[in-house]
Amino acid sequence: MPQSKIKQKKGMMTEGNWVEMVSDCLFEDSKLKKKSRHTKKAIFEELQSHRFQGSYRTVCYFVSDWENSHNDHQDKGHDRLEHPPSEAQVDFGIMEAVKDGEFVDIHALVMSYPCSNAAFVVPLPSENQECFLQGLKLLFHQAKGVPKNIRIDNLTPAVKKIRSKFEATKEQLDKIIKEFCVNSHQYKKLSGK
Predict the structure, then answer these.
(1) Which of 127, 190, 138, 137 minimizes the C-alpha distance to 160?
(2) In what order do the strands lie in the sheet with 149-153?
């Protein structure tokens, strides 16, 4: 029966204690914010100051391999979303506009179609449920059509009561959605826990 051989890595990084030095540095860096970490160039220059004879490319390959083997277990705090055609995503945002010669922040309801990168925007006076429902109607008219699905990303005004006489509730959101024949999917942000 043939025996499997474990191939020993060889090359400039495995000679001496270079692997340990770089691994220790990368391990310590993994605890820091991204902006505070050593760059590959900084690691290479540090190794050169200790008489490292290898190339910059060798260090880059080693750092990339180390990062790939050590970052798999970490939670990224987000999921990759699939966006089929004719699916829209709705969320409030703030845009800057010029009013009476001065820059002012304006609330805007944005409906984007991530599959095609198309987007429609409606400026609104506030981020409440009444504005959300009215903004949805305006966006549907602006788009000259209705998406098959809408993703509402953690949008509190879509389901919360407001403090005016309107007192719209989730049922009214459902009514508008049924009126325009779309399905609503609500997605919450990952907490990162």
Answers:
(1) 127
(2) 118-124, 102-113, 87-99, 149-153, 183-187
CA distance between the termini of the chain:
48
Q: What is the pLDDT of residues 61-85, one digit of tens each?
A: 989 888 888 875 555 566 666 778 8
Placement of tokens 């389901």 in the chain:
159
Buried/exposed 45-72: b ≥16 CB within 10 Å, e otherwise: eebeeeebebeeebbeebbeebeeeeee
Which two tokens mark 111? 């409906």
Q: What distance in Å separates the CA atoms of residue 10 and residue 176, rounded to the nearest whole number?
A: 66
Q: Is 75 helix (H, G, I), strand (E, B) or coil?
A: coil
> Which residues does residue 22 pair with via DSSP β-bridges, in sequence order?
none
Cβ atoms of residues 94 and 105 within 8 Å: yes
Task: Compute the CA torsion angle 133, 138, 143, 148 (nearest 10 deg).
Answer: 20
- Give yes or no for a contact between 77 and 192, defined as CB atoms under 8 angstroms apart: yes
Tell me the one-letter amino acid at 53. Q
Segment 157-188, tens digit of pLDDT: 655 544 444 444 556 666 666 665 555 555 44
Q: What is the pLDDT of residues 10-50, one digit of tens each?
A: 566 767 788 888 989 998 888 888 888 899 999 999 999 99
